[in-house]
Amino acid sequence: MTNNKELIVYTDGSSRGNPGPGGYGAILMYGGKSKELSAGYRRTTNNRMELLAVIAALEALNRESLTITIYSDSQYVVKAVKEGWLKKWIATNFSGGKKNKDLWLRYHALSQKHNIRFVWVKGHAENVYNNRCDVLATTAADGKHLLIDQGYEAEG
Questions:
Q1: Which domain holds residue 85?
Q2: Residues that are catalytic
C-alpha cells in the first residue's frame, strides 16, 4: 500500500438482543482489491460490535500513515469521533459510566497511526457495501463457535 491512495472501509455491527450474541463485518477496499472481515461473539452489545468492526479493520493493516475513510451506520461511533466525545471520555477517564472503555482505548491507539475520516451512512438502505457488512455481521452473530467478548463479559 502506498500513502497517496485512500483506503476505503465499510463497517457494521450486529447484536441479536442487546446484549446477546453479536458480530461485526468490515470491508476494506484499496487499489481495486477488497478484503472482508467478520467474527461472532457469544454475548455482547450492538455498540461494541459497531466499534469492534472499525478496530478489526484497523488491526488488519500492515502499514501506518494511511489516509482512511471509514463508512459506518453507527451514530455512536461516528459522533464519538467527529464530535469529540472520545477526547472528552479519555480526558475524564470515562467517568460517569461511559461504556466500552476497553474498545475505545484500543481504537484510539490505532487511530494515532493513520489519517482517519468517518462518514455516516444510512443503515439498511441502498448502500451495497453497508448492506454486505450487515450480512457479514449478522451471519457471524448467528454462527457457531462464537468468540468471547472479554471486555463485555468482564464488566457483566
A1: 6-155
A2: 12-13, 50, 73, 124, 134
For residue 107, being part of any structural domain is answered with: yes
Residues 6+ apart with CB under 8 A from 3: 65, 66, 67
Report whether 133 contacts 11 (CB < 8 A): yes
pLDDT in tens, 124-142: 888 999 999 999 999 999 9
Residues contacting 73, CB < 8 A, separation 6+: 12, 120, 121, 122, 123, 124, 130
Query: What whole-number distance in Å separates Cα of residue 80 and Cα of residue 94?
Result: 12
Does the predicted TM-score (pTM) go above 0.90? yes
The residue ranges of DSSP E strands in 16-53, in sequence order, are 20-30, 33-44
